[in-house]
Design a protein that fits this description.
- The complex is a heterodimer.
- By secondary structure, chain A is mainly alpha-helical.
- Helix content of chain A is 80%, strand content 0%.
- Chain B contains eleven helices and no strands.
- Helices cover 68% and strands 0% of the residues of chain B.
C-alpha cells in the first residue's frame, strides 16, 4: 500500500468506528465528544483532497458552532432519564436488516465504478495554482450566484421563523 | 532532512513560546501591581524574577484532586484540549520576514478553527467537574464564545478584503507601506473587544467570575491541571495579540533598528505583541466586570452589525 492509501484506510476505518461510538454511547455528552473527533477526521480528509478551505470551514461551522450548540442544549436539558434507558430494543433486527441490504448494494456498486479522466476547467492543477478558497469564491459568486442567493434566502426564512416562534407570547 | 529541520523549527518556537507563557504572568503581576501602587512579586530572586519558576514548581508538585462524582475521562482531557489548541496556533503566525512554521493559504481560518476547538476545553471542563459553579461557568463560556466568534471572524473579513488573501504573510506584505489600522478602524475596535471576550479576560471573564462562581469552570481543578487551563488562557491572549499585530499593525514591518540589523523585524513583532499584552493588563486593572446580559446584547446588537457594516463599507471602497 502506498502512503496515501494507508492514510485513507486509517481515516475510513476510524471514521466508521467513531460513528459507531457516537450512536452507542449512553451519555449524550460523550456522543458529542466523539462527534468532535469525527469532525476533525472529516476535516483531515478534506485536507487530503486539497480542499483546505472546506477543511477549515468544517471545523469552524460544525465543530465550533453547531457542536457547541448541541452541547449547550444537552447540558441545559440534563438528560438523566435517557442515560439509564435501554437503547434500540425493538429496532435492532430491522435496522440490521436494512444495513445488510445496503451493504450488499454498495459492494455491488463499488465493483462497477470506473474512474473517469479529469473533466472541465477546474482540474486539480488549476485549483492548486489559485488556491481552493479563491476558486470556490469565484465560482460561487459568478456561475452559481443564483443558487447561492436562493440558499441564503432559505436560511433567512429559517432565521425569521425561529425569531417569530420565540417571540410568541403564551396567554 | 527537511522533516528534521521542520521538527527543530517547531521545537525551538514552541520552547520559546512556553517560556513566554511562563513569564507573561510575571509581567502581568508586576504591571497590575504598579498600577495599584504595589510592588508585585518581590521575594523570589531579584525583584521576584524567579517567581514564575517557583510557581510552576509548586503547581507541578501539588496534589492532583479529582472530584469523586466527576466524569473522569472528560475531566482529564478538557485542559489538554485547550493547551493543544492554544499552542498549535503559533504555527501559522508569521513571526518575522517569511518565517512561520507553516505558511498556510487559510491562515486566518486556521486560527479561528483552533480557537473554536479551544473553547471546548472550558465547556467540557465545567461540565465534567459535576459542580454547579463549574457548570454555570462552562455554560456561560459556550454562549459567550459562540456570540463573539461571529464578530471576531467578521471583523477580519475586512482585512482579508484589503489584502486579497487569507494568508497571514500576504496580509503583512500588503501592509508594507501603510498599516490597515486606519482604513479598518471599526474592524480593529470590534476585533479588540471580541478578542478580549474570546480569551475570557476581564472585563468579559464571566466564565470565571469569582464573586459569583468561585472560580467558574476551574473551581474543581487543582495543581497541574489547573495550570494547563491557565496556560491555555495566556496562549490565547498571545495568539489574539499576534493576530491583531499581523492583521492591523503591519506585523514585522518597521524601520531597521541599530545593533540588531536584519533581526529588527522580529524585534518589532515582539514589541508590538507585548504592547498589546500590556493593553490587556491595563484594561484588567481599569475596568469592572460586565453583567452577563450586557455582554450578550453588546455582542449581538452592537458588534455584529458594526462588523457587517465594516464589510460593506470596505467592499464599496475596494470597488470604487
Amino acid at each position: 500500500m502506498t502512503l496515501p492509501q494507508l492514510f485513507f484506510a486509517y481515516f475510513a476505518l476510524s471514521m466508521t468506528v467513531l460513528s459507531l461510538l457516537i450512536v452507542t454511547r449512553k451519555n449524550p455528552v460523550h456522543s458529542v465528544i466523539w462527534m468532535l473527533v469525527l469532525f476533525i477526521h472529516i476535516a483531515a480528509l478534506y485536507l487530503f483532497l486539497n480542499a483546505e478551505f472546506l477543511a477549515a470551514i468544517q471545523i469552524i461551522i460544525y465543530a465550533g458552532a453547531i457542536l457547541v450548540l448541541f452541547l449547550f442544549v444537552i447540558m441545559l436539558l440534563n438528560l438523566k432519564r435517557e442515560e439509564t434507558a435501554q437503547k434500540y430494543q425493538s429496532q435492532w433486527p430491522i435496522s440490521m436488516g436494512i444495513a445488510l441490504v445496503f451493504a450488499i448494494f454498495m459492494t455491488m456498486i463499488v465493483g462497477k465504478i470506473t474512474v473517469m479522466p479529469a473533466l472541465g476547467e477546474y482540474s486539480v492543477e488549476a485549483i492548486k495554482a489559485e488556491g481552493s478558497m479563491m476558486t470556490i469564491g469565484k465560482v460561487l459568486y459568478t456561475r452559481y450566484l443564483l443558487p447561492f442567493e436562493i440558499a441564503s434566502l432559505v436560511l433567512l426564512v429559517a432565521i425569521i421563523g425561529a425569531v417569530v416562534l420565540a417571540k410568541q407570547r403564551v396567554e | 532532512m527537511e522533516l528534521l529541520l521542520m521538527f527543530v523549527k517547531i521545537l525551538v518556537v514552541v520552547t520559546i513560546f512556553m517560556i513566554h507563557l511562563l513569564y507573561v504572568q510575571y509581567f502581568e503581576r508586576k504591571v497590575i501591581g504598579h498600577m495599584q501602587a504595589r510592588m508585585g512579586p518581590m521575594r523570589v530572586g531579584w525583584h521576584g524574577i524567579l517567581q514564575p519558576v517557583a510557581d510552576a514548581l509548586k503547581l507541578f508538585f501539588k496534589e492532583d484532586i479529582i472530584p469523586s462524582q466527576s466524569d473522569r475521562p472528560i475531566f482529564f482531557v478538557a485542559p489538554i484540549i485547550g493547551v493543544i489548541a492554544g499552542v498549535s496556533t503559533i504555527a501559522v503566525i508569521p513571526l518575522w520576514k517569511s518565517f512561520s512554521i507553516a505558511n498556510l493559504n487559510i491562515g486566518i481560518l486556521y486560527i479561528l478553527a483552533l480557537s473554536s476547538i479551544g473553547s471546548f476545553s472550558i465547556i467540557l471542563g465545567g461540565w465534567a467537574s459535576n459542580s454547579k459553579y463549574s457548570f454555570l461557568g462552562g455554560l456561560r463560556s459556550s454562549a459567550q464564545v459562540i456570540s463573539y466568534e461571529i464578530s471576531l471572524g467578521l471583523s477580519l473579513v475586512g482585512v482579508m478584503m484589503m489584502a486579497g488573501s487569507a494568508n497571514l504573510s500576504d496580509i503583512v506584505n500588503a501592509q508594507a507601506n501603510s498599516w490597515f489600522l486606519f482604513p479598518q478602524l471599526i474592524a480593529f475596535f470590534v476585533f479588540l473587544v471580541s478578542a478580549i471576550a474570546e480569551t475570557n479576560r476581564v472585563p468579559f471573564d464571566l466564565p470565571e467570575a469569582e464573586t459569583e462562581l468561585v472560580a467558574g469552570f476551574a473551581t474543581e481543578y487543582s495543581g497541574m491541571r489547573w495550570a494547563l487551563f491557565f496556560m491555555a488562557e495566556y496562549a490565547g491572549m498571545f495568539i489574539m495579540s499576534s493576530l491583531a499585530v499581523v492583521c492591523f499593525m503591519g506585523g514585522w514591518n518597521g524601520p531597521e533598528l541599530p545593533l540588531v540589523g536584519e533581526y529588527s523585524g522580529l524585534l518589532w513583532f515582539v514589541l508590538k505583541v507585548y504592547g498589546f499584552i500590556f493593553f490587556y493588563f491595563w484594561i484588567r486593572a481599569t475596568l469592572p466586570r460586565y453583567r452577563y446580559d450586557q455582554l450578550m446584547s453588546l455582542g449581538w446588537k452592537i458588534f455584529i452589525p458594526l462588523a457587517l457594516l465594516n464589510v460593506i463599507v470596505t467592499g464599496f471602497l475596494r470597488v470604487l
